[in-house]
Amino acid sequence: MGRVSANGGARPGTEDTPAETAPGPAPVPAPTDAEAEEPAIRDPRPSAPPPVVRNPGTPPAPAPPTATPLLTVDNLHVAFPTRGGPVAAVRGISLRLAPGECLAVVGESGSGKSVTARSLLGLAGPGAVVRADRMRFDGRDLTALRDRDWRAIRGRGIGMVLQDALVSLDPLRRVGAEVAEALRNHRIVERRDIPDRVRQLLDDARVPEPDVRARQYPHELSGGLRQRALIASAMAAGPPLLVADEPTTALDVTVQARILDLLAERKREGTAVLLISHDLAVVARLADRVAVMYGGVFVEEGRTEQVLADPAHPYTRELLAAVPRARTKGKRLSRTAGAAGAGPAAATAGSRDAGGGGCAYRPRCPVADARCAEVEPPSVPAASGAEVRCLRPEVLWPQRLSAESEPRAETSGQAEPGPPATRDRPAAGTAAGNPDGTGAAKAADTRETGESTPETAVARASGPKEVRAGAEPGGTTETAEATAARVVLEVSALRKTFPGPDGSRRTAVAGVSFRLHAGESLGVLGESGSGKTTVAQLVMGLVAPDDGDVTLMGQPWSARHERERRADRHRIQLVQQDPLSAFDPRWTVARIVGEALGAPGRVAVRRHRGRIAELLGRVGLDGSMLDRRPAQLSGGQRQRVAIARALAPEPDIIVCDEPVSALDVSIQAQILDVFADLRDALGVALLFISHDLGVIHHISDNVLVMRDGAVVERGSAHALFTSPREPYTQALLTALPMPG
Fold first, then answer.
1. β-pairing, 685-690 with 653-657?
2. Is residue 199 over pLDDT 50?
3. Which of 40, 251, 474, 544 is deepest in the core (most CB within 10 A)?
């Protein structure tokens, strides 16, 4: 079978994912003369997208009065067959999209956003049943398209940026060939002009050194560079509609800003954009209208300023409250318990059964009553002007959820499954027991000495205490303070180079040094390609440094052979950026997590099934996930499985390489709370790598800022975010978008 390309073709020799395959062809009416004039590219696959069946009897939504819609969708339903009966992923949504307009669809993982987007290209998935009253694009009826007609539209009429760049890009083809595919298939330029056009497209997508990158393979690029190459590929044929499914997920803030500027420029030139995103800051910057999706339906729709500035539906308010901000540091972000069956994933999954009546959001709604379990809520106007689905509008508006997050409550003893409630953590840069802020001054001084301090970790382990001025790491007395302050990881003058495609050596890491203390969270911040992930690989011992060394728990680490390191592997665990490429696609979730418990075999997995379910509960997944395979999970669910796997051997250090980059804001909030709880309860140290400034500020005690392989600034999170000294750090903060 072949991997489906959003540019109109299929790639032989690669394995399909569920959302990218399609069942066999179905007879449809012959194309009209206008349709026959569209260029058709022969597809080696004998299959066709799932048939779209008209669903009569439901009146279409009114068209916007300002412009003729480029895309019209009325009453779209998408269901998937399962052993327990059909599951409705999309349940009757309608939308309009005019040229030069951006509609953003936001919501949690599993809410139906990506299925909606893929249905517009005939790529809903294997066995999918797609029906709608009307689906029209640029005057063409999408319900009547044959396979060859879909191929003519994909890439040329509708371009798509998929969420997972490493899976979407062919690992056997160079990046330049990927971008050139749409140019060749749709005959956009002469063959001799394709290399120049590819170089221009990569440059437009802000890919540095486009000539060099075009000759590289996807695995040789960072996550951000792969995502930019995918965007260049989607824009190659100049489609009038761009469907962008999480287009900036893997991008740092400066590159994100450039990509959003590029999308905004295309929008001004008349390109319509359907933006699928969990990043409300991105939505605020680009979208004209917002549709908030939960359980396969739009629960709130309106102008961007209406929805984000004055949210009406409790779910919309929950999403906004989960965004990490300066005022949320040291406080809980999530409102939903992480125990199995009680998290957002369980609530969403439980609301998607075909034929299930009532409001999908009722298990989490603060104003739900008995009627909400029986009647599907209608759409009613809110005070802001947005449309909201609710049965109780008379009580909905007074029930404004606080935008401020609730502080952590006191707890004692070991952590139970799910995020345990703990005390407020002291703000980074402020020593516990020093309310006058002297700790902040001391933290700011660390930028001068280049050394992070353990005061915050000490405070977490022992409670408020007076911190001795000028104390060096490990210089306190042999008590709980010494345990918390001990150095668990030390990196000294690491250097690493890699061969480039032209034969030269390219420097990835240049003289990086730092210390990580027990219970500390050290954030590593920087643009894509700055060396962050290479530092993680060096720390994990996955690649050998050219120079410098790493010590773990006071013992040599990088200098040892892997056979010697194996006995201590459980002490340091990795949560990778791209879980789909890290997992064995043949294994179930139970086996993936069980391997980290030393139980990879099926019999051993059954014996540890209770412990594996408990680990899944910590990250908000229920036991129904145990027998699923990676391809059957959403992007956010896969990332949570990766975190559960890292927690399994009870490590001293977790290296987190973009651990929440693929998660929607509510699940991101839950996972950040899980990490914070693990630090508080178990003293686990975190090396937290991210391009998300809000996440780094929220989770980190101290921060390193990297550029071109080197650390250009370091200090406490509070001092660095409030008074950055390095112009590069200032530029990062300036580029940070904010929701609302």
1. parallel
2. yes
3. 251
What is the C-alpha to C-alpha distance for residues 740 and 727, in angstroms, rounded to an integer?
A: 26
Report the pLDDT value the prediction gives residue 520, as an integer from 0 to 100: 93
**Mean pLDDT for the stretch of residues 135-147:** 91
Q: Of 508, 603, 516, nearest to 553 (Cα)?
A: 516
What is the reported pTM? 0.69
Q: Which residues contact 597 (CB under 8 A, 6 or more apart)?
A: 608, 611, 612, 648, 649
For residue 506, the cross-strand partners are: 498
Residue-wise pLDDT tens digits, 388-416:
998 887 666 554 433 333 433 333 333 33
What are the tens digits of pLDDT across the range 554-598?
999 999 999 999 889 999 999 987 788 889 999 999 999 998 887
Asked whether the beta carbons of 486 and 545 are under 8 A apart, the reply is: no
| CB-CB neighbours of 466 under 10 Å | 9
Residue 233, token pair as written in the block? 């590929």
Pair type for strands 102-107 and 87-97? unpaired
DSSP 149-212: HHHHHBTTTEEEE-S-HHHHS-TTS-HHHHHHHHHHHTT-S-GGGHHHHHHHHHHHTT-SSHHH
Tell me how far apart the alpha carbons of residues 641 and 579 are, in angstroms, rounded to a whole number.
Answer: 8
So what's the pLDDT on residue 707?
93
Cα–Cα distances in angstroms (integers) from residue 592 to residues 18, 584, 595, 645, in the given order: 20, 8, 6, 7
Tokens of 727: 């112009």
Domain boundaries, the chain: 2-287, 314-321+336-396, 438-734
Q: What is the pLDDT of residue 5?
A: 44
Query: What is the architecture of the domain spanning 438-734?
Result: 3-Layer(aba) Sandwich (3.40)
Q: How many CB atoms lie within 10 A of CB 477?
A: 8
Q: How many residues does the chain have?
A: 740
Structure tokens at 325: 């901000």
Judging by beta carbons within 10 Å of its beta carbon (0-12, 13-18, 19+), is residue 476 exposed, middle or buried?
buried
CA 23, CA 490: separation in Å to the nearest integer? 54
pLDDT digits (tens, 9 = 90+) for 410-462: 333 333 323 333 334 333 333 333 333 333 333 333 333 334 443 444 334 33
pLDDT 10s digits, 306-317? 999 889 898 998
Q: Which residues contact 244 (CB under 8 A, 6 or more apart)?
A: 160, 161, 231, 234, 263, 273, 274, 275, 276, 277
pLDDT tens for each residue of 253-284: 777 787 788 889 889 989 999 999 888 888 99
Rounded to 10°, the helix 253-268/223-235 angle is 10
| Token output for 106 | 């936001």
Fold match, 2-287 / 438-734: yes
What's the alpha-carbon Rg for the chain, to the nearest Å? 26
The CA distance from 524 to 108, in Å, is: 26
Residue (of 103, 113, 95, 116) closest to 289 by Cα position: 103
Instruction: List C-alpha distances in Å: 685 to 479, 481, 553.
Output: 18, 15, 12
Which two tokens mark 554?
A: 């006071």
pLDDT band at 738, cuts 50/70/90? low
CA dist., res. 734 & res. 257, Å (int): 10
Nearest to 616 by CA among 345, 369, 431, 390: 345
- Reported as a single tens digit per residue, the pLDDT across 716-737 is 999 999 899 999 999 888 876 6
The per-residue pLDDT for range 605-637, each reduced to its tens digit, is: 888 888 999 999 887 788 888 999 998 887 678
CA distance 387 to 343: 26
pLDDT of residue 17: 35
The topology under which CATH files domain 2-287 is Rossmann fold (3.40.50)
The SS3 assignment for 548 reads strand
Supply the DSSP string of 472-510, one letter for each residue: PTT-S-TTHHHHHHSEEEEEEEEEEEEE-TTS-EEEEEE
